Amino acid sequence: MATLLMPCISRFLASPHLRPALNGHGTTSDFIRVSKSINHVVPRLWARITSAQAASRAVENDLQGYWKHVYICNSGRERQVEFLPFIVEDSKIGYIHPKFLKHLRRFPEVFIVRDDVVNGMSKGWVTLHELLQTPQLRTDAIGVVLLSLEMEGLIPGWRNEHYPVVISFGGRSLFSLERAAVPFFGIKAYGVHMNGYVQVDGEKHLWVAKRSATKQTFPGMLDHLVAGGQSEGIGCKENLLKECDEEAAIPAFLAEKATAVGAVSYEQIKGEAFKRDVLFCYDLELPADFQPSNKDGEVESFELVPVAEVAEIIRTSQRYKPNCALVVIDFLFRNGYIHPDQPGYLQLLQSLRSGECQ
Amino acid sequence: MATLLMPCISRFLASPHLRPALNGHGTTSDFIRVSKSINHVVPRLWARITSAQAASRAVENDLQGYWKHVYICNSGRERQVEFLPFIVEDSKIGYIHPKFLKHLRRFPEVFIVRDDVVNGMSKGWVTLHELLQTPQLRTDAIGVVLLSLEMEGLIPGWRNEHYPVVISFGGRSLFSLERAAVPFFGIKAYGVHMNGYVQVDGEKHLWVAKRSATKQTFPGMLDHLVAGGQSEGIGCKENLLKECDEEAAIPAFLAEKATAVGAVSYEQIKGEAFKRDVLFCYDLELPADFQPSNKDGEVESFELVPVAEVAEIIRTSQRYKPNCALVVIDFLFRNGYIHPDQPGYLQLLQSLRSGECQ
């Protein structure tokens, strides 16, 4: 699907209407209106409406503003041809860039590189040594290589978190590896992401988190309520409940009402790293008197915002962390804020699963 | 996407677990339990639970029962290679089978057939005569051809309904043609489909329609509440409101609360006909005291059924009209009745858009 969607994405991105959105980067004065009809109104931390956003309401039938988030999440995909497939048990489980591969070539007892050249084009691939027949042997051998590379500073952001490698989600693990190394092998990664909403006078409001200004990734950007990577040995719902507690202090008796609602996916290349993410989406309706609070210091504040306002923020700015914007856009699709009488509906819907979604 | 999904569908269909489901055809004794907590309980028209279904609850974590509907909707797709592309304004807008094409060859002032043979394989295509430069000229010329073929009995089920041909939904119409002819040209067709639900004691129930025993297509099968083809000159929501009135006597003030929630798609080949359908999905929450009634004689009766029971009917029988089953499966995904901790979640989710969804 990924390859076939590229012309569709390219066509939209070539649109002159989209250019201003892609060139603009949002401002700190983007508007979030806090509902006055609920009890736990917090100060208007995040600014006031801009004239640009007011003007944009005139073209609210225009879906192109949403595309910039799809574009950002899938940026660099045209460079996929530079990467060599990583093949294990006859399945293409990932992609490795030649620059990263040169480090792996130093370990021929673990990684085998085939350098076939067909019609002048490199058609090589990477696989594991034939003696590495079991998941445990592979995990151990790759683990030694990765530790060595990490000590050389070649794998930043080490997390001590083991990540299973599967052909499709829920399938048998072929081996596991340190999570920080996953993008260098172009291996699919899975996560759980949750929108928390409240019904206020019959209108849905979304809880919006503002990420801490000191957070390493996407500081100060907007986020939905809860998200987390899907590691080895834990179910999706179980993981979500854990993240609900850590990220928003949602007690288990509430969190377990979270509903699975679908998935989004994207593929992004930055330098030698190839991220191939699938995010399982959940919704949770929260009581009006519930106030989320963050335990791990990664969120500066939470605000409850009418969904239509969230839609406008996403459509007209880049204040949202891009992959979380996809999860919110999926919410907008499922709740009628984006509808088929708007031109480009199906292409945008399809684009939310631009990455291999298995 | 279509082509890439085929291995996935094939893999699931090859599963030994699925075989019994595909071979069974449901029985009239499939179970629909009528909720006792609502006022308008109708007689248990549609039968009692079978031992087979009771047994199936033991494996309710198994998603493979849903696949038979995807399979049926996409049956015959492996024969796409037999069809010649139909190209207008440099875009592939459809597919025509050689057997139907032989009739079109009699009209060289309208249809131009290119019969290139490359490496022994037919690589031909069909296009329109170069003089047919405008939508009106094309519509008129093709209309004359189709009327002629209809009089020869080659296009059954003539509807006197004009169908726009677009490259992507909402785009400029290249021409329009009689709806009955659409599958013979492999042109994408669009429809609006709506699930009607009621909250009873915090549990969602779906309105299930039983199609009339005298209906030409899929007589006696189960259906969701409202559906209709998307013709020329009407918006999706406007069309849905019209169908809500005709098919279930839902007044406009209720129907306009229907919410767009996404789309499903499939591609099916039967003989010379190639159906490429995209169905826009809507949900409508109805008040507990609303009773749908059918105006056009196409529905025998309606029953309100807990969603979990609908899920079981779909998973364990073929009583549902297949494309409507996809729309209900989409509802199950969006409402957590199918969730990521069930093996095969992502593949099934992806399969709901097996056809080109633009």
Task: Give the DSSP E fraction of chain A (strand runs of 2 or more residues).
Answer: 25-35%
Low-pLDDT runs of chain A:
1-58
* Domain unit count of chain A: 2
User: What would you call the quaternary organization?
Assistant: homodimer
Shape of chain A: globular
By CATH, the architecture of the largest domain in chain A is named: Alpha-Beta Complex
CATH class of the largest domain in chain A: Alpha Beta
Please report the distance between the alpha carbons of the first and last residues of chain A: 11 Å
Query: Could you state the CATH homologous superfamily of the largest domain in chain A?
Result: Nucleoside Triphosphate Pyrophosphohydrolase
Number of H- or I-type helical stretches of chain A: 11
Largest interface: A-B, 38 and 38 residues
- How many β-strand runs of chain A? 15
The H/E string of chain A reads HHHHEEHEEEEHEEEEEEHHEEEHHH
Q: What is the share of helical residues of chain A?
A: 25-40%
Mean pLDDT of chain A: 85
Protein name (chains A, B): Nudix hydrolase domain-containing protein
InterPro entries (chains A, B): DUF4743 (IPR031804), NUDIX_hydrolase-like_dom_sf (IPR015797), NUDIX_hydrolase_dom (IPR000086)
Family (chains A, B): Belongs to the Nudix hydrolase family.
Function (chains A, B): Probably mediates the hydrolysis of some nucleoside diphosphate derivatives.
